[in-house]
Amino acid sequence: MEEQRSSVCLDLSLGSLWSDQTSNSVESSLSEIRSYPFRHRRRRLHPPHRTNLDPSFQSSPKSPKLSHSEKSPNPPEDFISDLPDSLIQEILSLLPTEDAVKTSVLSRRWSPVWTQIPNLCFIQKQSRHASDLVSFLKLVTKTLRHFNGEKVKQFMISVTYTKSMSSGVDYWVYFATNRHVENLSLVFDGKVAYSLPHYLCNNSCIKELTLRLCTVSLETPVSWPSLKVLSLSDSELDNGTVQRILLGCPKLQDLKLHGRVSVGFIRSKTLQFLTLDGIYNFGERSGDSVTEICCPNLLSLSLLGFIYKRTFRLVDVSSLQKADLDFKMTVDEYDTYDCKKQGEIIKELLTKLCDVEKLIIGPWCLQAVMQVQGIDSQLSKRNYLEVKTEMCEWELAGIENLLPRSPHLKKLVINLLPSNSSELEFDFRQEFAYYFDTDNEPEPPPLNWIFESFQKCLENIEINGFDPNTSSANGYFIKFMGFLAKKTTLKELTAQDSLNETSMANHLKKLVSCVILDLDGTLLNTDGIVSEVLKGFLGKYGKQWDGREAKRIVGKTPLEAAEAVVEEYGLPCGKDEFLAELYPVFSAQVCNIKPLPGANRLLKHLSDHGVPMALASNSPKKNIESKISYHQGWKNYFSVIIGGDEVTTGKPSPEIFLEAAKRLKTEPSSCLIIEDSIPGVTAGKAAGMEVVAVPSIPKQAHLYTSADEVINSLLDLRPEKWGLPSFEDWIEGTLPTEPWYIGGPVIKGFGRGSKVLGIPTANLSAEGLSSLLSDHPSGVYFGWAGLSTRGVYKMVMSIGWNPYFNNTEKTIEPWLLHEFNEDFYGEELRLVIVGYIRPEVNFPSLESLIAKIHEDRRIAERALDLPLYSKHKDDPYLTKPLHKECNNS
Ligand code: ADP
Ligand code: RBF
Ligand code: MG
After folding, report:
1. Any ligand 2 atom below 6 A from CB of 797
2. 499 phi and psi, to 5 degrees?
3. Ligand 3 centre and the CA of 699: distance in Å?
4. Residue nearest to ligand 1 atom 9, measured at CA
5. Side-chain half-sphere of 104: how many Cα atoms within 13 Å?
6. What is the pLDDT of residue 640?
7. Strand-pair partners of 261
8. Is 140 helix (H, G, I), strand (E, B) or coil?
9. Which of 94, 354, 692, 776 is the most buried if burial means most Cβ atoms within 10 Å?
């Protein structure tokens, strides 16, 4: 319609022709304009030769400005005037009538044309001035007076209604009904409703009727025998009146009720389309209401808007093909929700709508679905599901509840709403405390299971409104999309625009559902033991372990590692011999291999959340099994364990990871590899997987360029980046750790803490602490610091190589959060480290390093007041006298 209108290019900027105030000036301009077409016509008798290349010709069809003809020697052709009246009238019918009328000034030929247009449409412009309403009313009345068609097909009026207008409006309605109007729209706003005159209530011509703020008085019988489409909104109709109206419409096919309309039941054999939009009781007792729907031929049902104290009972909707549940319910005038009740309502509706092919469901209903346990025993036949959602946790839970019950789904449309708050519509937390009670939380169904059950048919997912910068790109959405994209036999994924598609594709590409881990150097500190053993052996051959071999053993089988070492040192023995000698020594040490920091936490977390895990290591399977046997629960964490002896070539060949994916019954692209070695990273990338590298040799991160991410330790893994459930153990920016203890006399440091940064750090000698330091990944930590003669203070510190200064030694840099009047070199400093903040990083400037350290300070200061951390303030280690060393680590 809009398009058609704009294609009618008439310049009608002549002002309000009939407004009394402007009539003089209009009159004068009219005489001027009227002279134009005659001259134009005369000239047209001898039209100058023109081609389509003539620029004035080309521009003329677009906007033939009248004044243009005066200047131009070649006035534009007037093709429109040559059209037959009936066609012009059809065209004019597409304009607001006010504009159609203005064409009367074009010429004598045009002057009567509009008076017989089939459609009349008057829309009052938004205005607060009473005078504008008056001139609008005058315009309508005058137009109708000049109109002389016998038939009006469509009559549409939209205006603010006041009581004093009733007889005027009666006249309009009379005018329309008298001209056998078929499609009538009376759209009013205002404070009082217009009461329909009896000649409208009894009308056999009307086929479509739209009424807003109109009532039917009690005595008036209603008879609309031809009516097919009826829309009633804000019409203050009680149930009795609505029933009277429905009885008077024996051919009704399409019914829309909106706002102040009460309806207790809708029974019709003819009705095909029904919309109930935000209906609320009018003129009824204040109790809860029910709307019963018994329409066996209904094809489409929409329940929309705010529904107040009303439930729907679907008695017979057996032909229904499409249902739109985008309503929101409140149970009282304070907009309170009763989620238990709403859950029941939704459950009943969905059970009744089980066979409907298309289901559209809005945020509120999704949230209600969330707590419906077992929507229905039978599975739905729907093949189209459209969700309107912010993709917040609660709505996602609803979707997760719906999907497994839709095994025939072919198309899923996700319309992402701009997220304003992601607030719960219900106060679920109160009502469903058990759901959020972490101690008592019912196990959410594992996503894998959910998706396995339904994706057989899914062909197309359409996503609209995706914006990676808003919370529609939040973890829940990513998680959800990850599963959809990976777990379905999806043929197509479409999004609103190409930009979104790329950014979404980038997001989705990264999403995984399974994790494959390397063992040695990634989960277990094997390299520590290997180093220890090799060190001893090298000594036996008169060689000194000097660190260059560390790089050579990482990510290798013991055989390969031994080979590398034999070669590196030119040992006078074959690698097999060397290995045969080493093997029993290694074996004896296996029980002493410690998990790397964060390993237990990661495995437990992924396992608790049902993320399938595999262990893929170059070492022989029996060695793997032996190594993990010393760690509680580890064997059960992995659904697949695959050793170097089970494949033809170990890492860097992708074979081992591809085999792991196969055994996990998943696509390589759905796997995340966690690896410490470069060969492992190479293998993972070659397998087409996402790879996070956790280099086990310090300061090597720059060598891992092919990894998708390089992290410092497992503590820094953010599973949500990969579409996996995020850790929940962070508290106010800190990660609680098992407390560990370190102490000694304060020594001189690099001499730059106070000088360069304004941040003094009391250094401890690395001697004697080196093994303790190597047990802890570099990074920023915090805890309590004790100085025997002074007291116990909050403390934040870094451990590591201070990338900004690129130190060669790993140091510990504790900043005591207290102002001291003097230095305390030589004094015994005791530290209890209780939590982790972040990895050590480099900074582009000194200022940014300083700012970050101050941010760490604020985080530590606040966190240390939490009981979880503050309780360690009284640890006796902090104040114990020097000689009674206590090293709990
Ligand atoms: P260094 O290079 O010797 O570590 P710094 O500039 O880092 O020198 O200063 C550290 C010294 O400053 C500590 O050894 C200690 O004696 C003193 N000091 C004073 N106030 C503090 C504080 N709040 N935290 C740590 N050390 C402090
Ligand atoms: N140095 C870095 O190069 N990168 C860091 O991220 C970093 N973080 C720190 C955090 C804290 C809380 C403290 C106390 C120090 C940190 N430093 C860091 C170390 C700082 O560079 C060091 O204190 C000075 O080099 C003084 O030796
Ligand atoms: Mg210092």
Report:
1. yes
2. -60, -50
3. 21
4. 760
5. 20
6. 97
7. 237
8. helix
9. 692
Backbone phi and psi for residue 721, each to the nearest 5 degrees, phi listed first: -60, -25
Q: Which domains does the chain have, with CATH numbers?
A: 512-729 (3.40.50.1000), 735-878 (2.40.30.30)
How far apart, in whole angstroms, are the C-alpha atoms of residue 887 and residue 739?
11
- For residues 518 and 616, is the Cβ–Cβ distance under 8 A? yes
Tokens of residue 8, six digits:
């009618």
- Give the tens place of pLDDT for each residue, 832-875: 999 999 999 999 999 999 999 999 999 999 999 999 999 999 99
Cβ 122 under 6 angstroms from ligand 2: no
Nearest Cα to Cα of residue 829 among 844, 805, 813, 842:
813
**What gap in Å lies between CA 631 and CA 599, rounded to an integer?**
11
Chain length of the chain: 889
Best residue for ligand 2 mutational test, from 712, 747, 799, 802 (most atoms within 8 Å of Cβ): 802
> How many other β-carbons are positioned within 10 Å of the β-carbon of residue 286?
9
Q: What is the pLDDT of residue 687?
A: 96
Ligand 2 pocket member 782 (CB < 6 A): no
* Tens-place pLDDT, residues 712-753: 999 999 887 787 888 889 999 999 999 999 999 999 988 888
36 CA to centre of ligand 2 in angstroms: 84
Q: Report the predicted TM-score, pTM, of the whole model to 2 decimal places.
A: 0.56
Q: Are 118 and 154 in contact (CB under 8 A)?
A: yes
Centroid of ligand 2 to alpha carbon of 766 (angstroms): 16
pLDDT band (50, 70, 90) for residue 26:
very low
* Phi, psi (deg, nearest 5) at residue 379: -90, 150
Q: Convert 48-70 to b/e letters by CB count within 10 Å (16 or more is b).
A: eeeeeeeeeeeebeeebebeebe
Q: Which ligand 2 atom sits nearest the alpha carbon of residue 841?
A: 6
Active-site residue numbers? Answer: 518, 520, 813
- The verdict on the CB of residue 796 being under 6 Å from ligand 1 is no
Strand pairing category for 229-233 and 254-258: parallel
* 725 Cβ closer than 6 Å to some ligand 1 atom: no
Question: How does pLDDT run across 573-585, given as a tens digit for each residue?
Answer: 777 777 788 778 8
Count H helices and E strands in the chain, helices first: 30, 31
Residues sharing a CB contact under 8 Å with residue 44, sequence separation 6 or more, in sequence order: 75, 77, 78
CB count within 10 Å of CB 737 equals 17
